[in-house]
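**User:**
If convenient, please work through this fold.
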Amino acid sequence: MKKTTTILILTGSVLFTTGFALADKDKTACKNLPDWRQLTDALKASVPTSAGGTLNDKNGGLELPMWATLVDNFGHVCAVTFSGSNNRAQWPASRIISMQKAYTANSLTVESSPGIFSTAQLFYPTQPGQFLWGLDQSNPVNPAVVYRGPTHKWGSSNDPAVGGIPGGNNRFGGGIAIWKNGEVVGALGVSGDTSCADHNIALRVRDNLVATAGLSDNPAGHYADNIIYDIKKGKSASGFGHPTCPGGKEDEINTKITGITHPAHDDFPN
């Protein structure tokens, strides 16, 4: 009797989880975003050949293969992909982190400045004593979405997370909003390298998608959500600073991408 009861409960749980995913998928606004193939092409164009891409440049980090996620304007996963030779060539943890970053960037962006935040701009204000301290505890990750299998489909065009809301709040570089005709249509999250490199790669991926997939610039300025390296002696002059990372020259590469010169900052670590 006990065995039968346990099986029934497990079956009910599986049915509930599957129904949840299908219900969410029906409510997505993914039609406003690039598709899986466009995201994959944009990611591969943003990482060096050593990381499974085509870029003849560096990103200021460890130059590792990457994960990328697109979410719609309410955080539903629309596409998950990777740059490496297979879905184990990247850090497995970074698949989930890329979802967190996309979810965070979308959930903390509205269509007017200063209501536009990249995850890179959340590092300093979420430190102890700052005004967003505890933000990372406010939206827990949804395990039913981010850990759903089968794992061999992770990063494919039918990744099992598609249609679900991953949740999670991430507070370091790699998550930025996506815009179209002056409206927030979702967000991009990338992960798999240092957080500084992740931000640079995210900018490159978004630039590629703007050029190829019908997206448009942030109405507050294309790089209004750029990373800010201004932490000196543990304090950020802007209040939205981010530490430098191992790998080197991440700010020089960011300047090359954006044309925005960074103020002086402490060397790693901060």
Q: What stands out?
A: The beta strands are 67-72, 77-82, 175-180, 183-191, 231-232, 235-236. Residues 1-24 have pLDDT under 50 and may be disordered. The helical segments are 2-26, 36-44, 92-107, 143-146, 195-212, 250-258. The chain has one domain: 2-258.
